[in-house]
Amino acid sequence: MPYCRECGKEVSTFMAFCRNCGVKLNIPQAIGEKDDKGTKSPAINSSGNGASSEIPPEIKGWNWGAFFLWWIWGIGNNTYISLLTLIPYVGQIVMPFVLGAKGNEWAWKNKRWDSIQHFKSVQWKWESAGIIWFVIAVIIGILVAVLS
Ligand SMILES: [Zn+2]
Predict the structure, then answer these.
(1) Is residue 51 part of a domain?
(2) Distance of CA 19 from the midpoint of ligand 1 (Å)
(3) Residue 41: what are its φ and ψ, rounded to 5°?
(4) How far apart are CA 92 and CA 86, in angstroms?
(5) 87 and 35 in one domain?
(6) 21 C-alpha to center of ligand 1: Å?
(7) Residue 88: left (phi > 0), alpha (psi -120 to 50), or beta?
(8) Which residues of 87-113 are buried (b: 16+ CB within 10 A; e: fewer)?
(9) Residue 68 is part of which domain span?
(10) Mean pLDDT in each 10-residue stretch from start to end of the chain (148 residues)?
């Protein structure tokens, strides 16, 4: 259902003004969409605006690319807080989990993306690279353990 972005009341797209708060609805930014779960998708793409970026519910979830690739992912996604993974022990143990949990949100806020689809396809590439890197690291670890 479409809703008024000013007051949150449901509106119809035929209405010129919101019945609740009177805001003009005939501009696209005034109307948002609710999906079946009642979550509100932002009507406009506000990625790359830092704290004022709205996070689309579609991108929420674990970020494996950030979890595996740490500051390499961070530099590629303008998320420099990931440099904390350079701190031995504490940064390396705690930060990967923080990056996995918050990576999608931070990347959306810190970098401009063409669309949700664009964001997802780029993050999927990071995820693939991260998993390949992880597998190679495990193999090297096993080889070192076996050969030493
Ligand atoms: Zn309203």
Answers:
(1) no
(2) 7
(3) -85, 135
(4) 7
(5) no
(6) 4
(7) beta
(8) eeeebeeebbebbbebbbbbbbbbbeb
(9) 57-147
(10) 81 82 78 63 77 88 97 97 94 96 97 90 97 97 94
Ligand 1 midpoint to CA 129 (Å): 45
Distance 45 CA to ligand 1 centre (A): 21
Q: How many domains does the chain have?
A: 2
- Which DSSP category does 57 fall into? G
Ligand 1 geometric centre to CA of 5 (Å):
7
Residue 66, pLDDT score: 98
Q: DSSP letter for 5, please.
A: T
Total-model pTM: 0.70
Kindly give the distance from the C-alpha atom of residue 40 to the centroid of ligand 1, in angstroms, as a whole number. 15
24: CA distance to ligand 1 center in Å?
8
78 lies in some domain: yes
